[in-house]
Amino acid sequence: MSKKALSLTQTAVLLALIVVIEYLMVGPQYILIKGSIVNLILVVATLLIGLPAGILISIFTPLLAVVTGHLAMPVLAPVVALGNLVFVILWWLIVRHVKESKSLISYIVATVVSSLAKFAFLYLAVAWYILPVVLKGLVAKKPPIKVALLAQFGMPQLITAVIGGVIAMLILPRLAKAIQSIGKN
Q1: H-run or E-run covering 58
Q2: Cα(63)–Cα(78) distance, rounded to whole angstroms?
Q3: Which of 52, 110, 119, 144 is the Cys-Cys partner for 94 at CB 3.0 to 4.6 Å?
């Protein structure tokens, strides 16, 4: 199998996994689990398949959430996609440019920096743009929406990004070896 075909296949498998997760984990009780798994998949796709795979999955994930009804306001999909892009691009840049590439140090730095950046971007985008500009009329009529959106795009985003990054640190070395051994056969 060519490298391009293998990359496409691996990306498709990760996308399919996200589809399954979206349909199986329905309800607020799964938010932290689902978010952590999605962030893990974003990191795995970016570091093991390549940045284009991470970008594709970053954009696809919020669109799928809109289609499945898990992202109630479609206007939030571009914000979530951009937050995911911040996350994967920072992971990719940090792991590629830290002196000890693909070491525990680069993974820790990538987890901390990319998680904080994603959290800050999402929270500020919702607080400073989506609520006061895009949803201004709705927020005026239903003030609890503001509280709910700020809560949804607050600490849960940081927590799930960190959990996804920590799990990635634990499994990436073994997963990379497994993929290399499959490629040799």
Answers
A1: helix 51-68
A2: 8
A3: 110
- Upper half-sphere CA count for residue 51 (Cβ side, 13 Å): 11
pLDDT, tens digit, 9 for 90 and up, residues 32-41: 999 999 999 9
The 10 Å Cβ neighbour count of residue 166 is 17
Give me the sign of the Cα torsion angle 124, 129, 134, 136. positive
Distance CA 7, CA 125 (A): 32
| pLDDT score for 98 | 76
Residue with tokens 């693909």: 102
Distance CA 102, CA 19 (A): 29
Contact 157, 122 (CB under 8 A): yes
pLDDT at 49 over 70: yes
Q: Is the dihedral of CA 14, 19, 25, 28 positive or negative?
A: positive
Q: What structural domains and CATH numbers belong to the chain? A: 3-184 (1.10.1760.20)
pLDDT tens by residue, 5-14: 889 999 999 9
Phi, psi of 105 (to 5 degrees): -60, -45
How far apart CA 63 and CA 57 sit, in angstroms, is 10
